[in-house]
Amino acid sequence: MKVQLLGTGSADGWPNPFCDCGSCATQRATGLARAASCALLDEELLLDWGPTLANSASRLGISLSKVHHILFTHGHPDHLAPEFLLWRSWIKDLRTLHIYGPPHAISRFEHWMDPEAPVVLHVVQPDDEFTARTASGHVKVRVLAASHGHGNGDLFADEAVLYDITSTDGDRLLYATDTAALSSTTVESVRDRNFNLVLIEETFGRHHSHGTGHLDLATLPITLADLRAVGAVTGSTDVVAFHLSHHNPPLAELTHELAGFGARPVDDGTVIDTRASAFGCTLVIGGARSGKSTFAESLASTRAQVTYLATGGERLNDPEWRARVLAHQSRRPTSWTTIESTDVVSAIRAHDHGTLLIDCMSLWLTHVLDKADAWESDPAEHQGKLDRVGAQIRELVQVISACPQELIIVTNEVGQGVVPPTYAGRLFRDLMGITNAQLAKVSSRAHFMVAGQVLPLASVAPLLTKDAHA
Ligand SMILES: [Zn+2]
Ligand SMILES: [Zn+2]
User: Fold this and answer.
1) Which ligand is in closest contact with the Cα of 75?
2) DSSP class of residue 80?
3) How far apart are the C-alpha atoms of 238 and 281, rounded to whole Å?
4) 34 — phi, psi (to 5°)?
5) How many CA atoms lie within 13 A of 325 on its CB side?
6) Residue 244 C-alpha to ligand 1 middle, in angstroms?
7) What is the pLDDT of residues 435-448, one digit of tens each?
8) What is the Cα–Cα distance from 305 to 336, expressed in whole angstroms?
9) What contacts 229, CB < 8 A, 6 or more positions away?
């Protein structure tokens, strides 16, 4: 299941355009504005269509031509902006669009229906179950009751629903906005669902007396605890907080707080693929200070469970090295598990869930050469030592290609300078080049980093396909 978040913000977005509070000012300074919440599932099914969606999709380079199911949670204008039906009706030969939502929400489409346009409206209510046909199979949908109403006669809020969705590949998503703490009936209805991904609202942050049908940093952890108690959220569930507003603390603080109860925020545009193993191995290669570690970490930051393997070892007698390691550590999310080891092969073999980020292979190779005592040119034992190093490189490549979990591997490009003056320097340069070429062969994709910029290299999969046809 591939879910792209086209918006992660509240009705007003974050920052609120009229507000100069610290939370808005910090968010504004990052340039990472958050549009109204909306998610796209496997390119074919949309959850909510708010007023900012069309623009968000276009900015992200996404076409919505394949979308032919839209599930609406409720009729509030940040979730349902019906005028898109008009622009859609200007495009011919699109497939029939199925629109689902509670009754008052669906009635908002009344004035926008072109009798000629292929659109079917479906009214849903809690406990309904239906199947949405997509190009790749069937998506199963269960409708759950939200707790969005708060007694002021707002019909859109009172009828609001949430969606429990099983994608074509069997992965499960809980789409939970807008809602306050879930009722015991709703919690019970998702018993043992073991969701792969939960998108849950976190509108009000540290404001606890808002008296609205939304969650805040006091009620969200209680709701998550309820979902954990019935096995709806488990250790393997990726919990993403969205519908974020400026009532939340600045992002760094929010990230830290959410990590405390097993949730995370992501930026608008983030793609979450619940099939981590579908990512295979990603190689990030670059010179010193090229930005390779930062880029690899940003790739990993979109994954739910990350183990970070630092190959540098402890080096207790080297303060400059320690300072570097600490700077790297402070950059990484606290939810990541860190391992410090030069035994990369064992770490990959032992890795049985989530994403393993390895930084970096040049330190691994240094360690292998140290152990083989291969740095000096010594005609008598030379070949035997190099054979041992070669065998270890082959073992590494074999373990990587057999790993069923996602790997992100950082490695150094060291072959672009002048020819090293020493035997050891030349040996290392050559073996690093050989190792990198082998790693690229077993990677699904590779990125070359230069001057902080990313240059995607041709992925291996299409090359194999070409060979197969040749
Ligand atoms: Zn909303
Ligand atoms: Zn609402």
Assistant:
1) 2
2) B
3) 20
4) -110, 125
5) 18
6) 9
7) 999 999 888 778 89
8) 7
9) 187
Contact 272, 197 (CB under 8 A): yes
Q: What is the pLDDT along the chain (470 residues), one digit of tens a residue?
A: 899 999 999 999 999 999 999 999 999 988 889 999 999 999 999 999 999 999 999 998 999 999 999 999 999 999 999 999 999 999 988 899 999 999 999 999 999 998 888 999 999 999 999 999 988 789 999 999 999 998 999 999 999 999 999 998 899 999 999 999 999 999 999 999 999 999 999 999 999 999 999 999 999 999 999 999 999 998 778 899 999 999 999 988 898 888 788 888 888 998 888 875 556 898 999 999 999 998 898 878 767 789 999 998 666 678 887 787 777 777 788 889 999 999 999 999 999 888 999 999 999 999 999 999 988 877 778 888 999 999 999 999 999 989 988 899 999 999 998 999 999 999 999 999 999 999 998 887 788 999 988 777 754 433 333 333 32
10 Å CB burial of residue 167 (0-12, 13-18, 19+) is buried
70, 94 contact by CB (below 8 A): no
255 CA to middle of ligand 2, Å?
A: 24
Residue 277 to residue 270: CA distance in whole angstroms: 18
24 by Cβ neighbours in 10 Å (0-12 / 13-18 / 19+) ranks as: buried
Measuring CA to CA, which residue among 176, 205, 206 is closest to residue 193?
176
CA 17 to ligand 1 centroid distance, Å: 16
> Ligand 1 centre and the CA of 199: distance in Å?
13
214 close to 178: Cβ distance less than 8 angstroms: yes
Query: 257 by DSSP, 3-state: which?
Result: helix
Strand partners of residue 286 = 412, 449
Question: Catalytic amino acids?
Answer: 328
How far does residue 273's CA lie from ligand 2's centre (Å)? 27
447's tokens: 């990125």
Q: Which structural domains are found in the chain, ordered by start?
A: 2-273 (3.60.15.10), 276-469 (3.40.50.300)
Ligand closest in space to the Cα of 74: 2
